[in-house]
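Schema walk-through. Below, the input block comes first and the output block second. Nothing else is stored per chain. Lengths vary across the set, and this one has 192 residues.
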Amino acid sequence: MKRLFDIVAAGSGLLLFLPLLLVVMWAIKIESPGSAIFRQRRTGYRGQVFTILKFRTMTVTEDCDKVRHATKNDARVTEVGALLRKLSIDELPQLWNVLKGDMSIVGPRPHALAHDEYYGALIPTYAARFRAKPGLTGYAQVNGFRGEIHDTRCMSDRVAADNSYIDAWSPALDLAILARTVPLIFRDPRAY
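--- output ---
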């Protein structure tokens, strides 16, 4: 049932947002050289590595052993990128990841491989997040655990929320998370 919902939602979303996707790609290309799509390896269901797609919002495209978290007023973020990040439009290409089956609409947000390795060594329950497909939105995000990671506690709170979601999963919980995600698109102070 969850996979069927993902296919219908992602397919519909790609069709609905196609004009916006094309405009955003054009705006990124006009503002700065390089690909409009950013690709980075992430860990998915059962530890399988996949390539996530996002709109490029920074002047760098890191996918290596050391990846810096985005920070408030990050100098690497482009002007177009700042708007895309604020409204979470940079995440829309992940609808393709959902359609392919790498991700789900709702689930734990995936992190860069370097972050998985780092926090996996510090937080004993970190790898338990991989019991579910990563999502476009998740329980951690709607409960205020989105954004900059200042210390290990920030990530451990996020991981605890992700694991709580997996343990309590139901279609009703996914719908509740989606309902709580919509208003955050327009007014989430942690989106930058």
